[in-house]
Amino acid sequence: MARLQEQALHAGIEATTSLQFGMPGGQVPSATLDLFRRLLAVLDRGQNQDALRPHLYAALLSFMQYSHGRRPAQASPHILTALLKAGKTNGSSDRLVANMDDQSRQVEEGIASALCHSLPLLNVVIRDAAAQTTRPAMKSQALTLLASWVVAEPSLAVANKLHQQDLPNRILEDLVNRAHEYLPGPAAGAAVQVIEAQLTLLLRLSSARRSSMAEVTDDVHIIGKLIHCKAIDLEPEEPVLRSSHRHDRRRHITQVLLLILQVVNSELAAKRQSSETSRHAVSFVGQHSRMMQRVLREASVGSLNGWEPGEKEAELAALVLSLVTRLSFSQLSQQPGAPADALREGAHRLLKALGCVNEASHSPLVQSPQLSEDDTADAPPSASQTLPLKVARLRCALARYLIWEVNASRDFRYQIRPSESMPYQPCLLQLSGMLKQAARDRQAASEERQILLEAIQSGGAGSAGRHHLALQEFGAAASRKPQSLPSLLTAAAQTERQVSRSLCY
Length: 505
What we know:
By secondary structure, this protein is an all-alpha fold.
């Protein structure tokens, strides 16, 4: 078993992104796919061996992690040019990239075909993913493996199999009836791993439906079920808990909320033509408006019992605003408790904190400590390196909310400057400040792209790690394997994609 796990890891690494420059076509794909079929065959024979399955799941997860990813030809031409130049490769760059891309395609298609021919085997993994008696570690492994297979199989045969076995509904039942009991308990860490894996699988199913033209045979009303999920309304601050326990509780609740809001937004995007889904989403906002108000409030305030908001709070606030702007203002206004008015107040409070250039803001999201001059490419990653990008995205979500608000109310008018009598009423000076900071963010992102290209060409040397978390990870990877050019493609492509997205904002 240990030998199979080792082979899965090494075969996956060889098949990742590059599949090695210049290797004759077919050698890597055939060896890689042969190992994948062997792993599936062993799982088939050992499906009743409880002690064996966790090791097989670990091996299959390692294989999927390294063998299924971004194709080389899909990376930015700037990245590929820099990689080829740094590697001093011989021959035509177009031919090398085409060879790499062809081998990646063969591996992906082979994995999808093998999964389609092994659908009965999914029952074994589904059983472990759904059973209440499954150990948490193996349950999260099974759920994560299924999520990776949903992504790897574009014809949605795996997704349809999961729906036929009613796994999404069983997951939702578990989230609605039990998640709120797990999170505050002593075993919350293990429970959160399972809940994260459950929500990730739901998110992959929703994303697969949105990106594929194939038909998904599901009758799951995800948002409708999540309306009744009590875990969503858990309060992160409990005065009776010690400080360290409060921080653990907050971290667990925040991570679960992030995934739930991602699932809800994804479902709305996937079923945007469904009036029933929209009604469910409106009811979801009405039912959980207190949580959303708290998220917006915490993203705009300072210290709370020694706690400061960070990048996850910025992400949460952006997801809340994104969800609201997908819905009808008139429908929200008709919900009990007037959630539209309460959320408007929260958005305006956030605008007061972020509606200016960074140096004029008192928001803890903006005034987070910056990277020290002593930090190097090998230093542990710092959250302050990715926080500016999260804040830029939050500002964009806030801008979209303000546009939605203006379109929803013809009587809405902006003041020219802040008013003492109405401190949270939006004004034109705040919008001007956001535009100025957006221009600065765009310039900074453009500079980071150039730094990335220079880091690739120099093999990760220099100060690349001081500018961005992804750049830091790239610099560390380059230092460990300076001669392994193909193995850097994934880190480089991820970084370039992140920088490009920040340019779009």
